[in-house]
Amino acid sequence: MSDEKSPPRKRRGAGRVTLLAVARAAGVSAITVSRYFNQPESVSPERRERIAEVVAELGYVPNLVAGGLASARGRIVAMVIPNISGPIFADTIQGFSDTLTRHGYQLLLASSYFSSEQEESAVRAFLGWSPAALVLTSHFHSPATEKMLAEADIPLVETWDYRPERAPIQIGFSHHEVGVIATRHLHGKGYRKIAFVQNSAAGDFSALERRDGYIETLKELGGEPQVFAPETDLAPFEAGKQAMLALMASEQRPEAIIFANDNLAAGALLAGQRAGFRIPEDCAVMGFGDYPFAAMLMPGLTTVKPPALQMGVLAATRVLQKLGVIEGEADHLNLLECQVIGRESA
Amino acid sequence: MSDEKSPPRKRRGAGRVTLLAVARAAGVSAITVSRYFNQPESVSPERRERIAEVVAELGYVPNLVAGGLASARGRIVAMVIPNISGPIFADTIQGFSDTLTRHGYQLLLASSYFSSEQEESAVRAFLGWSPAALVLTSHFHSPATEKMLAEADIPLVETWDYRPERAPIQIGFSHHEVGVIATRHLHGKGYRKIAFVQNSAAGDFSALERRDGYIETLKELGGEPQVFAPETDLAPFEAGKQAMLALMASEQRPEAIIFANDNLAAGALLAGQRAGFRIPEDCAVMGFGDYPFAAMLMPGLTTVKPPALQMGVLAATRVLQKLGVIEGEADHLNLLECQVIGRESA
DNA sequence: TTGTAAGCGTTATCAC
DNA sequence: GTGATAACGCTTACAA
């Protein structure tokens, strides 16, 4: 900490301990120190030890920016996700980030809020950092984004979607299958008159796939599908209420209802109970998402849990495999499974 | 897309469109293009227009790594947060990320899981990217981390905490005040016998500050504090149950209970109702956190909402002010307020 | 307003 | 196993 003769003030990165400083102090050349960090086995044990000492002593922190420039491959992976704080994607980010970090890579993150313009601008900004790989959510990108991706020539992963025909690595699950297993679960519990409530958010196409899985399966099982569509763009919680009360008042009163997501189901659960219906005796309720509140409701909400965390971990794993950081072939197609979380509501 | 005479293969960043390429195509020097991006007003309108054309045509993406190295200040801000997917921090990250992005900065993110070793290794890795600023959660860092921070000489912000005596910019709220306003809220509603349930997680010191606020305020109001401590390290949901049943069976049966957090409160709400108690008639319940499920419970959980999103936005704002990106003096101390969210449970 | 030259701290290349 | 040297693509400093 003593104030040594201050070196001639450099114009910019003044004061930073550099690789060269370490090299000099250790009596080796810069490239040897570089090798010490990147391919330790190619440095003799004695020098290795000496360098380690100096590094600790000087508190040297490798400048990854310089390294990235020199090698054109920074240890950064960028991810664009619709949102961070919603109930859906947080686990995916967490799994992705943790897996990456464990292998010495850093996460650059931005939200798109489902807007392809915002996605585009995030991708543009990210590419400036020459990330080692890029992870996007879903397959719908603006033409400009597609162009940048094509030119970037780095591993690309698309999560929360599954388009076998697309070139990027796909990591997703089948929404259709969600409809299937939810319907089978209810049928297995003895329910026969099963309805489905669509999402109130226009443009939620995945929810329609879940609905189709339901319709198909129920028909196979000899039932008669009954689909309710709430008013468009009603808040999901309200839409669930509306659907519940309408269905319970209808002539074709169902014994069980599958909701397009847990928000709808929660609204239904509460409104149903307020209206005096017992759940699941008068009507069973199922959701989708396994949002954090599902376990807190009374009765607990039976729902289908998407493999959110798993997708994040797998996305990172595939990226690291592509980069050769970890062993294994990075499969192009990665279809994960959802799981019925049985609680009291169905 | 035609295969032009392939230029002599460069060793590394082969093929990337560079600033120089843009400059040549536009008939100006590299520095002018650089200025076009960084201080557009110092470039004449005609050249500006010409450069814009070329940039679009060539699909030039500025290499931020090179820029970062040259200027020793990348437009990256790093944040270490205990976790991403828990109920607490997601809003803070979201607010932080969005505010940053809006001003052209990118977010580098990692989780510490409340471990100072993990925080240390994240900080070490981040510093290698010479971020423009660093944001940490809480004030407790390992000595090595403190040393790195001291030497890094970049703006540092600590969120979710508030230690006026510390040098970094502090952004937090008063846990003590949470205890105060919760107690006042219940007192205002007419409850007199008010109990407090501590967190089951050992080491949650903030929760103890909330408790002290409660004790102090209740005494001021003429009440007699009654603190219940669940078994240590019981899952919060279970701990809430245990506390509820124990308190309702005790001689000093309370009219209202403040729980150290919403998880405890939710456990209590459900267990209480299962045991036949009406809430809030037999006993009112309050939590802390305003976790996503709070609104979904029946009755809705009255709770104290911390300014999570706001803290993220403010952290980013202070950082940007420090960096001179946006106007305004960056205050050292930033105490935000919590808010009682009144629902049915109290 | 514009340009020239030098350098940011590292790694690739090639030689020893 | 080790080193000298030249990039990597940009921005600072200074000059015109």
From TrEMBL, chains A, B:
Gene Ontology molecular-function annotations: DNA binding
Annotated HTH lacI-type domain residues: 17-71
Name of the molecule in the record: LacI family DNA-binding transcriptional regulator
Matches recorded under Pfam families: LacI (PF00356), Peripla_BP_3 (PF13377)
SUPFAM superfamilies with a match to the protein in the record: lambda repressor-like DNA-binding domains, Periplasmic binding protein-like I
The keyword Cell membrane is assigned to this record: no
Keywords: DNA-binding, Transcription, Transcription regulation
